[in-house]
Write a structure and sequence with these properties.
Blueprint: H1 9-14, E1 18-23, E2 26-30, E3 36-44, E4 47-56, H2 61-76, H3 81-93, H4 99-110, H5 125-130, H6 132-135, H7 145-152, H8 160-179, H9 188-196, H10 214-219, H11 226-237, H12 241-245, E5 252-253, E6 256-259, E7 274-277, H13 280-289, H14 311-318, H15 328-339, H16 344-350, H17 358-363, H18 369-383
Antiparallel strand pairs: 1-2, 2-3, 3-4, 5-6, 6-7
Length: 397
């Protein structure tokens, strides 16, 4: 028998792209340092099969080993573990008829299409918050346009985008129910849309904290928790929440943070990693975050994986703050424009935006790293009160 348990949890997290054997047929296929999938290789009736066991790092090494053990036991009985799993799924489907059950099954079927396997909850949350509380216990065959209209009418105008997403997700759930062989009215969502009428809504930008208020808020983040440290690094660097959430030890070297290209949004046409210069304050935050590190990730979730997309937003809303974490990018950009003479190209690059067309970018060989380093240091000095400006206390008097 081949040796098993060759991998370690920490070692698996540090591996780059490639295929790595744990032994006994369990393999880790990594597409990059951050993500991958677990695969169980088995030969059944003379034919080699590869059975997916879930994504990495959402499925831990110990969980993958347990799944592999169960599949191996099935194979040793002369059965195909993949077919047996599919058979179990079909048997479970027979009991699906409530909307809540169908919705969960539809979500599971679409996870692979969603960013991060839908872990952030954006796909499912419109259903969970605005549809399932009222319709979740109803058989999908009983749901009609009147039920849908009455469910969504309270938010149809006040939360227009959310309501549209909820209606879209509900439509997909009904189509999923039809694919399961259930008798559903596939036209019910469109008929409900006609009954609800045209929405009265103006799109609103994500609320951004005025840059003059940022130092006071930054000084309120003092307890050293994962959430507060993540917010501090987000404010200091001006990056989006995804790179913060998936910040990994091997991305940091000296005073530069290299964000993998697949975590950088909004840089159309760019396939290279994005380098962020770290101010002295940012390096101190990274050092403090290392105390919470798990599997190399600086901002781990409570039980597994990394903190969710809503964690930082919840901290702000719990404090009665109407602004959003993403808005700190605007705070940084507005401060840059209002208080410095930073060139446009440097300021835009500092928040991860691309500047100019593809031809212009091809001839421009710089990412303005040193100019951005000066800018980030000045921003850090401003929000920490080292620039000589008065820092007000956060909160109501």
């Amino acid at each position: 028998m081949r040796a098993r348990n060759r991998l370690s949890a920490k070692g698996a997290a540090s591996l780059g792209a490639g295929k790595f054997a744990d032994g006994g047929g369990l393999w880790l296929y990594k597409t990059n340092r951050i993500s991958g999938k677990w695969v169980f290789r088995v030969t059944v009736h003379g034919k080699r099969r590869e059975m997916g066991l879930g994504g990495f790092p959402d499925i831990s090494l110990s969980e993958a080993r347990k799944k592999a053990d169960r599949a191996r036991a099935i194979a040793q009985d002369g059965l195909d573990p993949i077919k047996e799993r599919e058979k179990a799924k079909r048997e479970a489907v027979r009991n699906l008829h409530m909307l809540s059950d169908v919705a969960i099954d539809a979500f599971e079927a679409r996870k692979a299409e969603l960013k991060g396997d839908g872990k952030a909850g954006r796909w499912f949350s419109p259903l969970e918050l605005h549809v399932l509380p009222r319709l979740g216990k109803m058989p999908v065959s009983d749901i009609d346009q009147i039920d849908i209209r009455d469910t969504l009418s309270p938010i149809w105008h006040s939360k227009a985008e959310t309501a549209k997403k909820a209606l879209n997700r509900l439509s997909l759930c009904l189509k999923h129910g039809a694919a399961l062989g259930l008798d559903v009215d596939l036209q019910a969502p469109e008929k409900a849309r006609a009954l609800l009428g045209k929405q009265r809504h103006e799109a609103k930008h994500i609320p951004a904290m005025p840059w003059a208020d940022v130092p006071a808020f930054y000084h309120s983040l003092t307890d050293g928790t994962v959430t507060q440290l993540a917010l501090r690094l987000l404010i200091l660097t001006g990056v989006r929440s995804a790179p913060i959430r998936f910040a990994h030890l091997d991305q940091f070297e000296g005073n530069v943070w290299t964000i993998p290209a697949d975590l950088v949004k909004g840089r159309k046409g760019m396939t290279t990693d994005f380098k962020v210069p770290l101010s002295q304050e940012a390096r101190a935050v990274v050092q403090a975050a290392k105390l919470h590190e798990r599997n190399g990730f600086l901002f781990p979730g409570t039980r597994k994986g990394v903190i969710s997309d809503a964690t930082m937003s919840k901290h702000m809303s719990d404090k009665g703050i109407d602004y959003r974490p993403h808005g700190f990018r605007s705070s940084f950009r507005d401060w840059t424009a209002d208080t410095t003479n930073t060139p446009f190209e440097v300021a835009e690059t500092a928040i991860g935006h691309t500047v100019g067309g593809s031809v212009e970018r091809a001839y421009r060989r710089t990412d303005y790293l040193e100019q951005r380093r000066v800018l980030h240091e000045r921003w850090a000095q401003y929000i920490t009160g080292q620039s000589g400006q008065v820092v007000r206390s956060w909160g109501k008097n």
